[in-house]
Amino acid sequence: MLNTQQFIAAQQAQVETLFDLTHKAFSNVEKVVDLNMATARATLSESADVAKAALAAKDPQGLIALQAAMLQPAAEKATAYSRHLAEIAKAAQVDAVAVAEAQVAAMQQSLHQLIDVAAKNAPAGTENGVALVKQAVEAANSAYANVQKAAKQATDIAEANFNAVTETAIKAAKAAGKTGKKAA
């Protein structure tokens, strides 16, 4: 069935896949760290500006107006950060799914080859057993495809929900900012 050369080639392919996936994971972690560092720098700079503006306020209404003016941009920045983080996560998921799909396809191909070799070498009268195994493999492949389709639909729904929540948060922040400006 499998000779030493095939076993070594399969192991090398697994190691290459592992290193590729690890490289992609580190790349995504690096993107998150870069995003967090940029966000921290911007927040620090903006905090200094806000502190200066707060100290320059002449009365409580000036502080309330400053707070109201900051609400909408803060919500928009938080939303932008969340979107960027979600994009990084989605890219990581796409990478992982691609690797998993390739692995499943390779395993399915190997299994089909193994069944074909077994069918050729099977004694006479075992055709029904081989056919039963082939049907079981096809049923498993079909079930896997259905699960994969359902997972994709769930991901799409989660992304749509995230976008809806984000839009609602932005609208609420804008409304709160307008209300705060009117109160000042």
Can you tell me about this structure?
The protein is mostly helical and 184 residues long. The protein has one domain (4-183). The chain contains three helices and no strands. It has helices at residues 4-56, 60-121, 127-183. Helix 2 (60-121) packs antiparallel against helix 3 (127-183). It is elongated and about 100 Å long.
In short:
This protein is an all-alpha fold. It has helices at residues 4-56, 60-121, 127-183. α1 packs antiparallel against α2 and α2 packs antiparallel against α3.
As for the number of domains, it is 1
**Strand tally, please?**
0
Mean pLDDT: 83
Report Rg. Answer: 28 Å
Strand content: under 5%
What is the share of helical residues? Answer: over 70%
Shape: elongated
First and last CA, distance: 81 Å
Order of helices and strands: HHH
- Major sheet attributes: none
Number of H/I helices = 3
Key attributes of the depicted protein:
single chain; 184 residues; mainly alpha; 3 helices
SSE layout:
Layout: H1 4-56, H2 60-121, H3 127-183
